[in-house]
Design a protein that fits this description.
mainly alpha, 88% helix, 5 helices, single chain
Length: 196
Amino acid sequence: QTHNMYMMFTAALRARTVLVTQIFRKVLRLSGLSQASTGAVQNLMSNDAQMFLMFAPMFHMLWGAPFIITGCFVALGFLLRWALVPGVLIMFATVPLQAKIGITLFKYRAQQLKVTDERVKMVNELVQGMRVVKMCAWESALQKRIDECRKQELLLVWKTRFVSTFMSTMMMVQPVLITVVVFSSYSAFGYELKPY
């Protein structure tokens, strides 16, 4: 398992490096009149390319997880008999809640990336036109616009972290709850708890 994760992480890191390099090469070839803003390009090179590092180790589990889960359920079924059913019911009952949390997290993350692109675009335009900004004394007006955008971005970051924390807490509590329910059911069905 550990070697597998290492190999998948290494492959994901290589894919991310290739993706960032290709984006950089493409940007160097683009003309100044292209559709892509600097914020969007920086977002592609940092956030979107980072997704490879986050999800590539999990791609391998797409085909392996069904076999592992089936094998574990069969083995637990032989050991726990009917006491396994309440644990499985709790597991399936929490799936819709996890899906709802995941959709909310994805929605907030998409909004956050859009606002981050806008802020980076404004800051880059400010830096590129610094002489005009100083000459016309537009610092305070532009600072106010950037601050408003940053406040909106920080609010979305806070919402994203809040939902992510809730999801992490649920992922930590769910196995403990299932374990307690299964062992309680096992004892309630009259089976004897024996250490092996």
